[in-house]
Amino acid sequence: MPIPKRKEGEVERDFISRCVRSIIDEYDRDQALGICYSQLREKMSEIEDKFVLRPRKTENRGIYLSRCSRNRKIMEQQPNMKERMGDCLNAFNAYYRYWNKLDEFGNVPKDSVLGMCITKEKAKGLSYQEAYRRCGTKHVSPNVPVVLSDELIEEPVYFEGPTSIDFDDTLSTKRGQELARKLISEGVDLHIVTRRDPSESEEVERIGDFVGIPKSKIHYTSGELKWKTLEKLGITKHIDNNPDEITGIDENTTIESVKFKK
Predict the structure, then answer these.
(1) Are residues 192 and 136 in the same domain?
(2) What is residue 171's predicted lDDT score, i.e. its pLDDT?
(3) Fewer beta carbons under 10 A from the terminal one: N or C of the chain?
(4) Does residue 34 fall inside a structural domain?
(5) 164 pLDDT band (50/70/90 cuts)?
């Protein structure tokens, strides 16, 4: 669908709301908002073809710009460093405009458990963002977004498409196994990707069988960072406790990394 144009006399808030709703089926909400703000500024006529690196909720601008400017996809898309930093800054600003407007766009259904909790907390005088933070880690069910209790992940984490999980200190833990079984029960196509060698497969296969992951969905990188394997598998999200793996995924792929904590 073509990107809407701003109507004569239309205020910014109304245009952004209308624009996001018109393209939300083609882009995720963060990308849609970035596209609409760029359309508003009339700076990028081909923005719909651009990859936008989503900031993490607690990243400050400097950390995000550093990560964005080193991302392989962003570098391929915009080789010029000055222009690349400009694109990253636009993406960062657009994301936080989006986060501040979550209530306006109605991201969480008001009749869901999470939505009702947010409404209750807002009635106490809290902002939407603070109410979301308080409620997000309390209410998780198949009918609301999955939220991991992690300082890096405060927004909903939707597991759609092939998803993978690390083994050591992640799936090997009780919490990791509970998470894996929950995701599988909700229909997520879950794989194990581990830096172990295939010769160390016995424990991995045993726990994989326990949570419901077959041998065909267990992948070994034999000591190599996982991001290349994840790309080959078509993984959309990877859950891992290792910061080196998170960095490798963030800098070299469009896969969404989800940091795991015991």
Answers:
(1) no
(2) 96
(3) N
(4) yes
(5) very high
Calpha distance 66→100 (Å, rounded): 23
Largest Cα span, the chain: 67
Shared domain check, 130 and 217: no
Within a domain: 202 = yes
- The DSSP H or E segment spanning 163 is strand 163-165
Q: Encoding tokens for residue 258?
A: 């989800």
Whether residue 135 lies inside any domain: the answer is yes
Structural contact between residues 210 and 180, judged by C-beta atoms closer than 8 angstroms = no
Residue 139 above 50 pLDDT? no
With respect to residue 174, please indicate whether it lies within any of the assigned structural domains.
yes
- The parent domain of residue 223 ranges over 163-259
Closest CA to 184 of 194, 176, 196: 176
Would you place residue 41 in the very low, low, confident or very high pLDDT band (cuts 50, 70, 90)? low
Note the pLDDT tens digit of each residue in 69-121: 888 888 888 888 888 888 887 777 766 655 454 444 445 556 666 677 778 88
All residues at 6 or more sequence positions from 24 whose CB lies less than 8 Å from its CB, including other chains: 32
**Pair of tokens at residue 132:** 């979301």
Residue 114: both structure tokens together: 């999470």
Do 151 and 197 lie in a common domain?
A: no
Are 17 and 91 in a shared domain? yes
Residues 137 and 197 in one domain: no
